[in-house]
Amino acid sequence: MSQRKQERGTILRRRTKHDDDLPDEIVLDILSKLPVKSLLRFRCVCKPWYSYIANPSFIINHQQSLPLEMSQRKEARPPMILRRRTKHDLPEEIVLEILARLPVKSLLRFRCVCKTWYSYITSPNFISTHLLCYNNHDGGYVIHIHSQICTLASDRTFETISEVRFPFTFQSKYSDLVGSCNGILCITDFVTSKSKDVYLWNPSIRKFKRLPLTCLNQTQVLNAAHGFGYDSLNNDYKVVRISWNRTKWIPPPEVEVYSLSSDSWKRVVLEISWRPNVISYGLNGILAFPFVSGHLHWMIEMIEEGGGQERRCTSMILSFDVNSEKFKELPVPDEGGCIAKCLTSYKEKLALVKFGHGAQPFSRLCSIWVMREYSVLDSWNKLHILSIESLTNFVGFTNYGLLLVQTRSRLFFSNSELKRKHKSVLIDPETLHEKEIQVDYRLDVAAYMENLALLDGANVLSY
């Protein structure tokens, strides 16, 4: 027995590069119980598997690991191995259970094992199951985008894991991250008037698609805002586009919804009660519009007329149910005035961040509100109040609730050239501990995970 363990250890030491796969002991144990026909196919999966199966020690272990009845049948009827054998393979449900817990990189290789595995891995049901099973054990990632570079980083430390260049370009040369949902990125042109080009991109499988043109007349659109979310009822991804042709739009604006499953746009009516005393509406687009509890959200800024010549600024939250494709208005916590505010998400809850004047010169107070029970006014709860520098931009929260802020660009001389530099800081709202991260450019940040979506479909391109 000790000799077999030593021989198996010799095999294991030959494979060190694929740390994201199943442990080697489990892989070898599974392989040793498979019939010869399966092993001959599995040699093409990757070089480590080829070396396992071709190793003399594995061949001996495989022969000794075969079930007794199989060995006896083999001795009694030698030609049996030449026949088509399926009943000695692993049961289908066990194979699917194992595959659902493997990383995307492994699954892309395993498609070549056989037609059955290819049909497993590319089926919509398996892709949904893999998203739930595999990413439940994920450590958490974020992506941040600058110009044409997408950087994958650790959610807790923001340490860079990998970088990849966009497989497409925009007319303005600058991109705008609409949102990230289950590992798919939705990206459009940073210049609003040129944002008719919208892409869905899955970096983990190196696939992307350009969305078809919308059904509206783009020549009359001056402003547009996009949102990106997942329809859990229909296992579909949707892009929402709100467009208007004024600086301050008068309702109703035009709304369109793109469905990935149908690969087409359709118009949707914005059915909410517009207030009669409002003379103008504006869209607060400081951050990407958050997707929370199956809904997309926009902050609408309004100017209302009072009894006389008085005018006042008010706000409302516009919510869009991605499943039913219906709009509704959500309540906003009312607690005095503020300099600015924006919507975001905090630990999968809808959050509102308000900025007010600080006690010290050149400082601001940052109030963080969280809606604990979705769509309930009384559930708004003020979690934290932070003091930050006045020249600070709010970027967002990580999955673990760390606040990411960035000082505005400052001019400095370098090699006789005038340049700009950003300072990015992660803040723990509870302990107020700060950590500066090495990112000196404007950030677009979103949560990220591996996913097989966009593996197959209409007009999907590989690179």
How would you describe this protein?
Keywords: Kelch repeat, Repeat. Residues 16-62, 84-131 form the F-box domain. It comes from Quercus lobata (Valley oak). Pfam families: F-box (PF00646), FBA_3 (PF08268). InterPro entries: F-box-assoc_dom_typ3, F-box-assoc_interact_dom, F-box-like_dom_sf, F-box_dom, SCF_F-box_component. By secondary structure, the protein is α+β, with helices and mostly antiparallel strands. Among the domains are: 2-135, no CATH class; 223-330, no CATH class. 19% of the residues lie in helices and 39% in strands. It contains ten helices and 26 strands. It has helices spanning 2-12, 24-32, 36-42, 47-54, 56-65, 68-76, 92-99, 104-110, 115-122, 124-135; strands spanning 141-146, 149-154, 160-165, 175-181, 184-189, 198-202, 207-210, 223-231, 236-244, 254-259, 264-267, 278-284, 291-292, 295-305, 311-321, 326-330, 340-346, 349-357, 363-371, 380-389, 392-397, 403-414, 417-427, 434-437, 444-448, 461-462. Strands 4-5-6-7-26 form a five-stranded antiparallel sheet, with no helix packed on it. Strands 12, 13, 14, 15 and 16 form a five-stranded antiparallel sheet that branches. A hairpin with a 5-residue loop joins strand 2 and strand 3 (160-165). The chain is elongated, with a radius of gyration of 27 Å. The two termini are 48 Å apart. Residues 4-19 and 68-85 have low confidence and may be disordered.
